Amino acid sequence: MSPISLDEEVRLYTTHAEREKYGLLANLFAIVVSLDYLERAYVRDAVTATEYSPACTRLLSQYKTMLKLVSDDVSSIEDFMARYNMDHPAALHRIKVGVPATVEHSSDAGPETSKWVAETTQNFITFMDALKLRMRAKDQLHPLLQDLVTGFARFKGSKEWEGRNQMVAWLITLNGMKASEEITEEQSRQLLFDVDHAYAEFFRSLGDKKGSC
């Protein structure tokens, strides 16, 4: 056996494929760390909501893309973080929720408009139709529900709506599934019930606001 030189650089890879793999893993690591710093900065008011929201959305999008690229080597984000001793609970929470804190904890950012109402109504109808058409896979339902929850966040007082909190909980559930995984028939029925309840609550809130004007 040839002697090992202590001055020789230790390389993680010997082939181009291995180099590519470790490069992708390094990118995923950096995204998680960046997301954790961003979350902590937002909590400390070191960045404004206007600065935070697009940055967080971009990092979450990059995370989802990167996770697909390393899916053969990373079974879950929890396993990845444990493997590399990553202690970033704020990033892990944001990843599990799948939307910025400004959406999860809706702020009273401004007046509702007829355009917002129309868009949110369409999001409700589209999502409920998807369930009625027996769409069950995460990659079918998650984008639609994400649009719906994001639409909720634009309305004053929406963080107090029971239906919105239920939608966020479902979003977290879907976000924890693999793209090809499907919800059960029982889950689908419960989800449709919760969305219908949220839809009714949404319109009641609009009526209350009109009556109070």
Any overview of this molecule?
This is Vacuolar protein sorting-associated protein 28. The chain has 2 domains: 90 residues, Up-down Bundle (de novo design (two linked rop proteins)); 96 residues, Four Helix Bundle (Hemerythrin (Met), subunit A) (Up-down Bundle), CATH 1.20.120. The protein has 9 helices and no strands. Helix 6 runs antiparallel to helix 7. The radius of gyration is 21 Å and the shape is globular. The termini are far apart. About 2% of the residues have low confidence.
* Beta-strand share of residues: under 5%
Q: Helical proportion?
A: 55-70%
Structural class: mainly alpha
CATH fold-level name of the largest domain: Four Helix Bundle (Hemerythrin (Met), subunit A)
Mean pLDDT score, rounded?
Answer: 84
Membrane topology: Peripheral membrane protein
Domain VPS28 N-terminal: 1-105
Domain VPS28 C-terminal: 112-207
Pfam families: VPS28 (PF03997)
